[in-house]
Amino acid sequence: MTEVNQQLSRNARQGRRWGVLLAGGDGTRLKKLTRFVSGDDRPKQFCSLFGNESLLGLARKRAERTIHPEQILVQLTASHRAFYVEEPGVRASQRIVQPTNRGTAPPILYSLLSIQQINDDAIVAVLPSDHYFSDERGFSVVLESAFETAAQYPWSVILLGASPQGPEVEYGWIETGRPFTVLAATALGSRGSSKSRRSTWPENCLGGALSGTHLSW
Asked: Which of 216, 214, 217 is CA-nearest to residue 24?
């Protein structure tokens, strides 16, 4: 009976989990590379840069290890229709298509409102679709921990950061604070910046700041 109860509890927790994959960007910074790889102007999330699957396909499978496939929404842009209709595993009911690329805030808000209509107790992970992770198993562990932490602190926003290798002005940084759970990697974020100045990077790296990864709960 204990095993049955544990399974029911696990299913209940996972039933609250939703994911939003951000896949509406135009991929302008890597346009030369993606044009060389694919032979057309498709954004990088629709390119197969590692193996035969697109970055979006890899991101979807990555999310499905922790979130039920039917509870994953994919944010897209209408002008990319020729590319996203070719994506296997993404049904029409999962697509959140914006008429033009207006950034991430509008589709995130629309997705959250849509999910709230179905489950007002949902925990939502917002995930990029154009990232590469060399340690997939490690990422899954972190994703699981983030969901558990978000469940414990329902009024908080959880950000996932990475130790910087050097200045990266496009990603900004997260300044960490004191640990507040038993999870070794979880800490209060004291400050953050979505865009950074190169001159401020050395002091932030030395202070233990983390690079932004565009992952949040």
From this structure: 214
